[in-house]
Amino acid sequence: KTVLVLNGPNLNTLGWREKNVYGTMSLAEIERNLTALAERLGVEVRCFQSNHEGALIDEIHRARETADGIVMNPGAFTHYSYAIRDAIAAVELPAIEVHLSNVYKREPFRHVSVTAPVMLGVIAGLGPIGYELALKAIVAQLDNVKG
Ligand code: DQA
Fold first, then answer.
1. Which residues line ligand 1 at a C-beta cut-off of 6 Å?
2. 62 alpha carbon to ligand 1 midpoint, in Å?
3. Atom of ligand 1 nearest to the CA of 98
4. Prediction pTM value
5. What mean pLDDT is predicted for residues 46-67?
6. What domains lie within the chain, and their CATH numbers?
Protein backbone atom coordinates (compact mmCIF):
# COMPACT_ATOMS: atom_id res chain seq x y z
CA LYS A 1 0.00 0.00 0.00
CA THR A 2 1.16 3.54 -0.75
CA VAL A 3 0.14 6.76 0.97
CA LEU A 4 0.71 10.08 -0.76
CA VAL A 5 1.79 12.85 1.63
CA LEU A 6 1.04 16.25 0.11
CA ASN A 7 2.06 19.65 1.42
CA GLY A 8 0.85 22.89 -0.10
CA PRO A 9 2.19 26.43 -0.31
CA ASN A 10 4.78 27.78 2.12
CA LEU A 11 5.19 24.47 3.92
CA ASN A 12 8.66 24.19 2.34
CA THR A 13 9.61 27.04 4.71
CA LEU A 14 8.90 25.05 7.90
CA GLY A 15 11.83 25.40 10.25
CA TRP A 16 12.14 29.18 9.85
CA ARG A 17 8.60 30.31 9.08
CA GLU A 18 6.66 31.82 12.04
CA LYS A 19 8.28 29.44 14.52
CA ASN A 20 5.92 30.48 17.31
CA VAL A 21 3.03 29.16 15.19
CA TYR A 22 4.55 26.25 13.27
CA GLY A 23 7.49 25.11 15.43
CA THR A 24 11.06 24.50 14.34
CA MET A 25 10.88 21.15 12.58
CA SER A 26 11.62 21.32 8.84
CA LEU A 27 9.46 19.61 6.25
CA ALA A 28 12.39 17.32 5.42
CA GLU A 29 12.47 16.15 9.06
CA ILE A 30 8.70 15.64 9.11
CA GLU A 31 8.95 13.60 5.90
CA ARG A 32 11.84 11.56 7.30
CA ASN A 33 9.84 10.71 10.42
CA LEU A 34 6.84 9.74 8.29
CA THR A 35 9.00 7.51 6.11
CA ALA A 36 10.33 5.74 9.22
CA LEU A 37 6.80 5.33 10.61
CA ALA A 38 5.57 4.01 7.27
CA GLU A 39 8.27 1.36 7.35
CA ARG A 40 7.08 0.25 10.80
CA LEU A 41 3.49 0.16 9.54
CA GLY A 42 4.44 -1.81 6.45
CA VAL A 43 3.40 0.81 3.88
CA GLU A 44 5.17 3.13 1.46
CA VAL A 45 4.90 6.91 1.58
CA ARG A 46 5.47 9.27 -1.32
CA CYS A 47 6.04 12.87 -0.26
CA PHE A 48 5.38 15.88 -2.47
CA GLN A 49 5.31 19.61 -1.74
CA SER A 50 4.38 22.42 -4.08
CA ASN A 51 3.58 26.10 -3.89
CA HIS A 52 1.42 25.71 -7.01
CA GLU A 53 -2.23 24.71 -6.98
CA GLY A 54 -2.10 22.97 -10.37
CA ALA A 55 0.94 20.89 -9.44
CA LEU A 56 -0.87 19.66 -6.32
CA ILE A 57 -3.96 18.84 -8.39
CA ASP A 58 -1.87 16.91 -10.95
CA GLU A 59 -0.34 14.91 -8.09
CA ILE A 60 -3.79 14.15 -6.62
CA HIS A 61 -4.94 12.89 -10.04
CA ARG A 62 -1.86 10.69 -10.33
CA ALA A 63 -2.67 9.22 -6.93
CA ARG A 64 -5.73 7.55 -8.46
CA GLU A 65 -3.40 5.06 -10.13
CA THR A 66 -0.42 5.15 -7.80
CA ALA A 67 -1.65 5.51 -4.19
CA ASP A 68 -4.20 4.05 -1.78
CA GLY A 69 -4.70 7.06 0.46
CA ILE A 70 -3.69 10.69 0.93
CA VAL A 71 -2.44 12.76 3.87
CA MET A 72 -2.58 16.43 2.94
CA ASN A 73 -1.79 19.78 4.46
CA PRO A 74 -3.20 22.11 1.80
CA GLY A 75 -1.77 25.22 3.57
CA ALA A 76 -3.74 28.36 2.75
CA PHE A 77 -5.47 26.53 -0.15
CA THR A 78 -7.52 24.91 2.62
CA HIS A 79 -9.47 28.11 2.95
CA TYR A 80 -10.36 28.78 -0.70
CA SER A 81 -9.33 26.13 -3.22
CA TYR A 82 -12.46 24.54 -4.61
CA ALA A 83 -10.18 23.04 -7.27
CA ILE A 84 -8.22 21.02 -4.71
CA ARG A 85 -11.45 19.99 -3.02
CA ASP A 86 -12.82 18.78 -6.36
CA ALA A 87 -9.62 16.85 -7.11
CA ILE A 88 -9.80 15.01 -3.77
CA ALA A 89 -13.48 14.26 -4.38
CA ALA A 90 -12.70 12.99 -7.89
CA VAL A 91 -10.08 10.42 -6.93
CA GLU A 92 -12.24 8.81 -4.24
CA LEU A 93 -9.30 7.82 -2.04
CA PRO A 94 -9.42 8.12 1.75
CA ALA A 95 -7.78 11.46 2.56
CA ILE A 96 -6.96 13.13 5.87
CA GLU A 97 -6.34 16.87 6.21
CA VAL A 98 -3.59 17.96 8.58
CA HIS A 99 -2.84 21.39 10.04
CA LEU A 100 0.13 21.98 12.27
CA SER A 101 -1.54 24.90 13.98
CA ASN A 102 -4.94 25.04 15.64
CA VAL A 103 -6.61 27.03 12.89
CA TYR A 104 -9.66 27.58 15.11
CA LYS A 105 -7.80 29.84 17.51
CA ARG A 106 -6.33 31.94 14.72
CA GLU A 107 -7.73 34.50 12.25
CA PRO A 108 -11.38 34.00 11.21
CA PHE A 109 -10.43 33.26 7.57
CA ARG A 110 -8.64 30.14 8.83
CA HIS A 111 -11.79 28.81 10.51
CA VAL A 112 -13.24 27.81 7.15
CA SER A 113 -11.96 24.73 5.32
CA VAL A 114 -13.43 24.21 1.87
CA THR A 115 -11.48 20.96 1.56
CA ALA A 116 -12.55 19.33 4.85
CA PRO A 117 -15.96 18.13 3.58
CA VAL A 118 -14.31 15.73 1.12
CA MET A 119 -11.84 14.38 3.67
CA LEU A 120 -12.22 11.32 5.86
CA GLY A 121 -11.13 13.47 8.79
CA VAL A 122 -9.15 16.49 9.91
CA ILE A 123 -6.34 16.90 12.46
CA ALA A 124 -5.37 20.38 13.59
CA GLY A 125 -3.21 21.96 16.26
CA LEU A 126 -0.99 19.03 17.24
CA GLY A 127 2.14 20.02 15.31
CA PRO A 128 4.18 17.50 13.28
CA ILE A 129 2.70 14.54 15.20
CA GLY A 130 -0.54 15.30 13.37
CA TYR A 131 0.96 13.89 10.17
CA GLU A 132 1.92 10.68 11.98
CA LEU A 133 -1.56 10.30 13.47
CA ALA A 134 -3.05 10.85 10.01
CA LEU A 135 -0.78 8.21 8.47
CA LYS A 136 -1.78 5.71 11.17
CA ALA A 137 -5.46 6.51 10.60
CA ILE A 138 -5.18 6.06 6.83
CA VAL A 139 -3.45 2.71 7.29
CA ALA A 140 -6.14 1.60 9.77
CA GLN A 141 -8.79 2.69 7.29
CA LEU A 142 -7.13 0.74 4.45
CA ASP A 143 -6.91 -2.35 6.66
CA ASN A 144 -10.60 -2.04 7.57
CA VAL A 145 -11.81 -1.51 4.04
CA LYS A 146 -9.62 -3.93 2.12
CA GLY A 147 -8.57 -6.42 4.78
C1 DQA B 1 -1.70 25.49 7.99
C2 DQA B 1 -2.75 26.52 8.40
C3 DQA B 1 -3.11 27.41 7.22
O4 DQA B 1 -4.07 28.39 7.64
C5 DQA B 1 -1.91 28.15 6.72
O6 DQA B 1 -2.24 28.92 5.58
C7 DQA B 1 -0.76 27.24 6.44
C8 DQA B 1 -0.49 26.14 7.36
C9 DQA B 1 -1.20 24.67 9.20
O10 DQA B 1 -0.53 23.66 8.96
O11 DQA B 1 -1.44 25.03 10.35
O12 DQA B 1 -0.01 27.44 5.49
O13 DQA B 1 -2.29 24.59 7.06
1. 10, 73, 75-76, 78, 99-101, 103, 110
2. 24
3. 10
4. 0.97
5. 98
6. 2-146 (3.40.50.9100)
